[in-house]
Amino acid sequence: MTGWLGKAFVAAILVFLAAPLVVVAGVSINQPKRLLFPPEGLSLKWYGELFTKSDWAGSLTNSAIIAVLAGLLAVSVALPLALYIWSRGGLLGRVLFGLGIAPFLLPPVISALGFMVFWISAGLYGHILATIISHAVFLVALPLVTISLGLESIDRSLIEAARIMGANRRTVFLTVVFPLVRPYVVSGFAFAVVLSLNEYIIAYMVAGFSAETLPIKIFNSLRYGYTPVMASAAVLFVLIAVVVFGAIARFGDLPRLLGAHRSQDA
Amino acid sequence: MRQRREEAASWPQAFFPGLVLLVFFVIPFAIMLTVSFFKRIEGGFFEPSFELSNYIRFLSPFFGKILFTSIALAAGAAAIVVVIAFPFTYIVSRMDRRTQTIILVFILSVLSLSEVIIGFAWSTLLSRTAGIGNLIAWLGLSDAPQAYTPGLVALILGLSYLGFPYAVLTMYPAISRLDPELPEAARMSGASPLKAFVSVTLPIMRRTITGALILVFVFTLGAYLLPQVLGRPAHWTLPVHITDQAIFQSNIPFGAAMATFFLLVSLALVGLALAVSGDRKGSQP
Q1: Domain boundaries, chain B
Q2: Of A55, A91, B17, B66, which has fewest CB within 10 angstroms of its CB?
Q3: pLDDT digits (tens, 9 = 90+) for B26-64
């Protein structure tokens, strides 16, 4: 299974996964405003429009604000929760953990409708704050899982040692626990930000008409015609994802973060 | 049971997360459930009432057809995806750490892609002017380039593309922890690599595969944009109709009733998947 035939199979699948992205990258640098591949003439003007034309730049700004604030809020919920579950466990911990990962495991359209009726009732329907909080709740699962993984990898004798030396709980947290889980906090935040940037249905149902995000803008333009700016926006998203996940892999142990436990030597 | 320690944190630590999840997750779901019994108002949102009419509409052929289409599409895509993703993940998990990490970065990037972008990318790839139709015509297999979207095949391709990275990452933990000596032993006793894979690896992984099948099914069942971008109106699935009712038909109560139904089905399926794939806590170090 791992011979050349297996490698060829893996390579073929990777080509299948890359193909649509390559074509989109190709059409994003077309000279004419038409959907053509291979591209005719080379131009980066569509990337320029993405950042300068007010409607595209506006949704790009909305997306960035929502993603960063939702990511921060998700981490600020996930970190104390993960710490509580790690140090206490118990029924409440398990219930809260379940509540934390449920929004992410369920089909997003369900949460989207739940959020929609909630914000209508709360009077914030259509407000960007509704999108930020909804995204944060939807994405709590990611930092919750990564931080829990990080806490589990901490050697408990380190904490015992710190306690014996006379450190109080606060000092133990700040000098031992937090530095050890920091990479997991950062990766959880990064996962949440990337997924918030790409999220469509919740953002659309909660405030789709007033706080337009980039995915909503792309879908709207897809419905009313074609512009290569869509392609350049898509390429930007792929690049952000590759850079963020590449950085996590560079500075952390990605296979372990994704659940591989057996130590594998290169 | 987790070891309790004296210096354990006190409950206020759980207060803020608990409050946020209660107010912004549990309450919205409670409201959604309530609204599903409400009455719609023409030109507005809804008004308090108690009626079962929204649920009675499930018995109509209209709803039956939507349900059948949604389940058939998601089941088809889930089956295709898991059959391909299992050997893929198995081979990747046996590669050296560096190659593995690069492939995982790529898989994660594809996973995080918005359905909008996947839909747009596939409709481009299958289009007449920029798609594989050009390649097929150039190879002389067809007279002139043609479009392959929208249609059932395009939609199944798109759903498989959406579900594939999810299937890989769902099965990756179990597959990467698989003891490599088991298939090795089968090979020593004279089985070919393929036979060792089919007769040893696959049976051990049966629970993982079943769990992944269900989770990918729920995941693709949630697809909202692909049926609209790559499919025809006949292929519209439950999520499309839920949104359509809530936003375009201004019938939030009926949308909420469909979402409640969808919630119960998904919860049951996710619970089943977690039960089938075994207690995850047991495998922690």
Answers
A1: 60-236
A2: A91
A3: 999 999 988 888 887 776 677 777 778 888 887 888 888
End-to-end CA distance of chain B: 14
CA distances from B285 to A126, A146, A179, B197 (A): 46, 16, 21, 26
d(CA B17, CA B200): 44
Q: Do the Cβ atoms of A108 and B134 come within 8 Å?
A: no
Digit-coded pLDDT (tens) for B179-207: 777 777 877 887 787 788 788 888 888 88
Contacts of B196 in chain A (CB under 8 A): 1
Alpha-carbon distance of A121 to A223, in angstroms, equals 30
CA distances from B218 to A200, B118, B163 (A): 18, 18, 10
Q: Supply A173's token pair.
A: 């947290």
Q: Which residue of A has its CA nearest to B29?
A: A114
* Among the listed residues B94, B86, B231, the one whose alpha carbon sits nearest the alpha carbon of residue B163: B86
Tell me the ipTM for this assembly: 0.85
Q: Which domains does chain A have, with CATH numbers?
A: 55-216 (1.10.3720.10)
Q: How is residue A152 written in tokens?
A: 């589990």
The answer for residues whose C-beta is within 8 angstroms of residue B147's C-beta and 6 or more apart is: B126, B127, B128, B131, B133
Chain A CB contacts of B2 under 8 Å are 88-90
| Closest C-alpha to A78, from A26, A21, A14, A148 | A148
Report which of A113, A107, A118, A83 is spatially closest to residue A97, judged by C-alpha positions.
Answer: A83
CA distance A204 to A207: 6
- Find the residue in B nearest to A89 (Cα): B2
Which H, E and C letters describe chain A, residue by residue?
CCCHHHHHHHHHHHHHHHHHHHHHHHHHCECCCCCCCCCCCECCHHHHHHHHCHHHHHHHHHHHHHHHHHHHHHHHHHHHHHHHHHHCCHHHHHHHHHHHHHHHHCCHHHHHHHHHHHHHHHCCCCCHHHHHHHHHHHHCHHHHHHHHHHHHCCCHHHHHHHHHCCCCHHHHHHHHHHHHHHHHHHHHHHHHHHHHHHCCHHHHHHHCCCCCCHHHHHHHHHHCCCCHHHHHHHHHHHHHHHHHHHHHHHHCCHHHHCCCCCCCCC
- Do A189 and A71 contact (CB within 8 A), yes or no? yes
d(CA A14, CA B282): 33
Q: pLDDT for B232-285, tens place per residue?
A: 888 899 999 998 888 888 888 988 999 999 999 888 888 888 888 764 443 433
Q: Does B101 touch chain A (CB under 8 A)?
A: yes
